[in-house]
Amino acid sequence: MTVRRQDIWVDFGLSGLTKWFAGPWAGEATSEEIVAGAADWGDGRAYAATLLEDALRLLGSPVPTRVIELLRRAAVGLPYNPDDVRQDGRAWLGDIARICTERIRRDEPSFTPVPPGPPVDGPLKEAVLEEIRAAAPAVEAAVLAGGAEVVAALEQVVVKVDPDLGFRLFLRVLKAYLVPVTESRYQRYHELGERFGYHELVVDDGTLQSIPDTD
Q1: What is the C-alpha separation between 148 and 137, in angstroms, rounded?
Q2: Within 13 Å of residue 29, how many CA atoms lie on the same side as its CB?
Q3: pTM above 0.90?
């Protein structure tokens, strides 16, 4: 089965999963139940495949576990509290990979996970970094305590893991904290989304706060 991102009309992969943890059911379900629900979303194994790819890519990366835990909470709109980490970030990714593999094997029993291919590089990486840095003051003001760490963590994911994943997590943080985005930046985000092959609703599902340019 070939996964076409353009056909996934909601935020997918790890960034999409964090939205599930912000849902009204999050307080009534375990972490594993939420992941299983996300992996089973939609038609067949398309969503599970993108989630598995993100989890394996981040799990095998050199970024510190603290970065994973920080972004996990930031993407949901929660402050990072080192004393309130209920599960190690890499253990969490390992659970995600296991659950997604089990979901895919329901349709393809012989499926064996393989390391993701090389991430995109070059101009796309620089374009994402530029947008994160341009939005840094607004992100830091919205997040308050730990805002600078969140920005630095997003940059680490872009540089050390994957610009695609970093961009989607960046968008999720903007949505989670209702960070205002000028119309010109809003348009650039959509253009970047097209270059990554996203459905337009991945960039904005109606929760990205667009405001007029002041110039």
Answers
A1: 9
A2: 15
A3: yes
Q: What is the largest CA-CA distance in the chain?
A: 57
Q: Read out DSSP for 115-159? A: ---PPP-THHHHHHHHHHHHHHHHHHHHH-TTHHHHHHHHHHHHH
Question: What does the alpha-carbon distance between residue 211 and residue 180 come to, in Å, rounded to a whole number?
Answer: 6
By residue count, the chain amounts to: 215
Confidence grade of residue 149 (pLDDT, cut at 50, 70, 90): very high
Tell me the C-alpha distance between 131 and 34, whole Å: 31
120-145 pLDDT tens trace: 778 999 999 999 999 999 999 999 88
How far apart CA 200 and CA 11 sit, in angstroms, is: 10
If one counts every other C-beta atom within 10 angstroms of the C-beta of residue 210, the result is: 14
Domain ranges within the chain, ordered by starting residue: 5-107, 123-211
Q: Mind listing the pLDDT tens digit for each residue in 165-214?
A: 999 999 999 999 999 999 999 999 999 999 999 989 999 998 999 999 87
